From TrEMBL, chains A, B, C, D:
Top-level taxonomy: Eukaryota, Fungi, Dikarya, Ascomycota, Pezizomycotina
Region: RU A, residue numbers: 1-89
Protein name from the UniProt record: Cyanuric acid amidohydrolase
Region feature (RU C): 231-338
Regulation: Inhibited by barbituric acid.
Species, as recorded: Glarea lozoyensis (strain ATCC 20868 / MF5171)
Amino acid sequence: MAVNILKFGTSSPADTSPLKALKAAGYDSADILAVVGKTEGNGCVNDFSRTLSTHVWEPLVPDKAITIFSGGTEGVLNPHVTFIVTEKKPTGLQAAAGRTRPLEPHEIGTPEHAKEVASSVGAILNGAGISSSDVHLVLVKCPLLTSEKLESIKAISKIPATTDTYESMAMSRYASAIGIATALGEVNDLEEAMRHDTTWSSKASCSAGAELEDCHILILASDSKTEKPQIRAASTYMADAIDAGAILRILDRVKSDNGKVLQIFAKAEASKDGLINGFRHTMNNDSDIHSTRHARAAVGGLIAGLVGDTRIYVSGGAEGQGPPGGGSLSVFYTVAES
Amino acid sequence: MAVNILKFGTSSPADTSPLKALKAAGYDSADILAVVGKTEGNGCVNDFSRTLSTHVWEPLVPDKAITIFSGGTEGVLNPHVTFIVTEKKPTGLQAAAGRTRPLEPHEIGTPEHAKEVASSVGAILNGAGISSSDVHLVLVKCPLLTSEKLESIKAISKIPATTDTYESMAMSRYASAIGIATALGEVNDLEEAMRHDTTWSSKASCSAGAELEDCHILILASDSKTEKPQIRAASTYMADAIDAGAILRILDRVKSDNGKVLQIFAKAEASKDGLINGFRHTMNNDSDIHSTRHARAAVGGLIAGLVGDTRIYVSGGAEGQGPPGGGSLSVFYTVAES
Amino acid sequence: MAVNILKFGTSSPADTSPLKALKAAGYDSADILAVVGKTEGNGCVNDFSRTLSTHVWEPLVPDKAITIFSGGTEGVLNPHVTFIVTEKKPTGLQAAAGRTRPLEPHEIGTPEHAKEVASSVGAILNGAGISSSDVHLVLVKCPLLTSEKLESIKAISKIPATTDTYESMAMSRYASAIGIATALGEVNDLEEAMRHDTTWSSKASCSAGAELEDCHILILASDSKTEKPQIRAASTYMADAIDAGAILRILDRVKSDNGKVLQIFAKAEASKDGLINGFRHTMNNDSDIHSTRHARAAVGGLIAGLVGDTRIYVSGGAEGQGPPGGGSLSVFYTVAES
Amino acid sequence: MAVNILKFGTSSPADTSPLKALKAAGYDSADILAVVGKTEGNGCVNDFSRTLSTHVWEPLVPDKAITIFSGGTEGVLNPHVTFIVTEKKPTGLQAAAGRTRPLEPHEIGTPEHAKEVASSVGAILNGAGISSSDVHLVLVKCPLLTSEKLESIKAISKIPATTDTYESMAMSRYASAIGIATALGEVNDLEEAMRHDTTWSSKASCSAGAELEDCHILILASDSKTEKPQIRAASTYMADAIDAGAILRILDRVKSDNGKVLQIFAKAEASKDGLINGFRHTMNNDSDIHSTRHARAAVGGLIAGLVGDTRIYVSGGAEGQGPPGGGSLSVFYTVAES
């Protein structure tokens, strides 16, 4: 399915005025395949900005469309929504979306969770006729464990993946990422990958939220059959949180293509060993601000500075989404028709 | 006075092991003119990491040396100390340090405060024989208003500049910056500048702390009389928090000089109008994290990425230190002897 | 209008299941005069839990009903909603609700704001035939200044009451409280009271939120004409944040009436002089947690412990609502029919 | 060793003026057996207020004396220090102090840690001739895991108790508490108790800090041989965070003894099941404020209100120190000589 990408700033998590802007750009709400938003909450367990956006947007989009809201616009980042809309003619970019079945609370963050994501991603690719080698980004929004879910697990004598609600976000993201990596052929042994926390996909971008039970999945891929693609994609990974080189190399390519960046999707995290390039950082020892907030602010500052745009999708918690301490990076850009 | 710059990471605010590293590099504690550190507290009113560093370092440095600790190593930033040490032979860089008289609590953040800084900076420059046109950085550490100081002001029936302790940090920084700008000839009418909050110096870097009563002042300047300076300096300002261009222009100059960055001093702040390049940021509306912490994380991420080093001095709260929403930027670098 | 009070816990700010519980208790949604809730956000500027609750509840209540959501359930407090529902027969308790006109952003926190609240409260009392001497509680939810509102004020060259968004909440609450005090005859000179910040009402409970433009008003009063009231009310104030005596005196009265507490409405704040009973507290110097959050947690812990119930309405920011450092306190309780 | 208890407020973590107040009360620094303080940091991993107090106090007390600083004075609590000083004549209260050997990082929070505390407490009791049945309080300050310690464990191929620095505080407190319970005969099977997290002592009060390697231990006990004790002790536990009854019963006993409270030591925590008395609390789902901070604020508010004093020792994180969701409670009071 050929798609285009448009993005608009929001004045609050309840702001749906971007729909008007979308219509002014010539699209109808029926064209919406996905709404991917950054909202201004803490991006952690009690982030109700995500829930609020989900509440106001879901009635406005087609039933089959999905919404993915990622909390956290620390630092310079701008709260905004990105629309993935269908186009009648080929654009060079194609997309497909879907959902897993609802996960049982005790499945969250486990191999069962990863398998559900893997089979759903596989089914969506098959259904859309997209080759895994053309994929540049798989966005997943997945559930987390709240106190209530932990109690419901206890009530049926099951074992949760963790009893720490914040940690459950990380485990949920990792399971989703391993599912993606399995579906894309980046990982062969899912069970083995789930026993560690160091396997990764360079195309995965996962975020966890308390406001859903299933996983929402959005896939963006190049359309290799389009002759003169107007939209091109590039994906890579940042090796650590200050890897400006990875960003600059893609931006150089955009420049050499006379292109203009439509949107950047990046993952960010604090390295677990507490070091960046051999020097200590304090993100993991700060009991006032979670490390995901620190990482979004810093990596968001770097990418926004380099691309000159604060309306970018930088999401915290990169477990399995790029190398440890780094993160996956996908850039979509238009090229002028010659 | 000819000086050199050395910097070392710290394992905690109480870590004085950099003194050993300094000695291993051939210097003695008697050579220390200033210790300028970044510590890992919140950089706000109740940041005891600054106080702790002051406590452990002051007994170790010469009486006439000054210490300036700036709290806040959000995101990728590395807690570290930078030594300004005297050299016998010219290096191309000269420095001078001093203090104002203790400020009365009711003077903090007022024109009186600015005047004290102006006259002290002027006196230090005169005493050291440094021309104001050679100055690239004036670092000032200044006091703030705590609840206790507010009560002591009330007890003598004086009026504080503000009754909000966090806001007093901003007002203290602004007064210090206007003092610097006056001494350097960037501002002619101090009283007028203090009636607004938009006048600025591109050489000022001020931070406020609860642990002192006077202002500590450190001046770094080029020595225009040195024929082949090994250390060069460049100063400019970031126009906003994503002004990568300002940084890249200086780094290009360093590169063309075959230079190596010794240290970067930058100020950062959230723009008061809530916008960056026309798009909304949320730093001023976040009641969980103060805007100074957001700004340090974002600008620190940008500069650290571009220079490839997290041991940099990025300080929050740029009132009067660079244009609104931006900040002053000073870079010191060595050039290889030819 | 005769009313009853019922309260139910919520599982999240989006949880509207209390409506089912209300129906199970024999009431219809048409009976709802007001929904007064405590939601689990930070209670400060960027509290989207309030907005989310407003979004899910407003479509479910009658047009003339009002909703008041107060953020912040720090410590032991339970997120819940309290329904004020109309009864056909006299209960001993009567209520009336209404709204002011939308306030212009530059009016928020000013005498104009206070006057609007005063005249609206007066009109509501008149319309309902309630004597001001019977009033035990006036709840007001009022707007605050966000970055966007500050810019809109600037755009029309008006002056905001403050440029600090968090401080605007305090000023909005104070203006609302002075309006209430004026309407109830506790204050004679509104303009004079607005020049200071120390005048207060013992019946006022005001909270500010970014999600509204006008002020929502709910008045609860004894019905002195009912012969055998089943619901009784008592109101007083806590002199400081540890005034257990004020609470115990009311609870003793409930006990001597063989009563059972229906609901407690309390305001809490950190004393501005930084002292409680002569000893320093640190609520005003904590740059990681706003003082309103500290105060709700502490006073909530005290009241919940004494009444043995965590489903109580404790709201932070008591400017003008009780003496400085203390807060208004209203208790509603049923007495067994003899 | 006969002891007395004196307490004094502090103006900051660096304030040692209580030593003057102690001298004014007729004591010498050589009389100090222990300094037990509450400091105003976050009480979590990066609380440098504790480290700062340790730095300024340790040079001022005898070598054999111990210091225990517990961070966190949320809500109404007053930062202060409590001195345990030796008396020549019997007072009714006796004390003894000591330390364990330094714990290896990989031992923190493990059975090995618990055994070290158990054997040290046993040895201290033996050495002082104190019967375990007379003990009313065992205070322990124990180390935690920082990022650096986690890396040092990895470097020697050992397994840490947890890789989450904040969680390591809880595990360290639990191990210390089980050690105390074992030494006092409240627990028989230490290994078994360490396999769960629900065993507890009603005399234990443990706090963790990054600033030490060994465990500091202070024991307070009644002297049953004193005929007319001037100082009496009572210890019990709060069953949950709103258990006002437990506090009131002790305060009634103090009142009936015509006594005056010298000091209260209480532990507080958020119940893990997310409920208090059947109703949901939000302390465990708040990603902006750690649950220990919430619990200290709420329980501190309750106790301070009931005793009318904010200079009390309320410490967060009650793992193994009182029943789950509650906490140990020890009160020391003077009685007038008859």
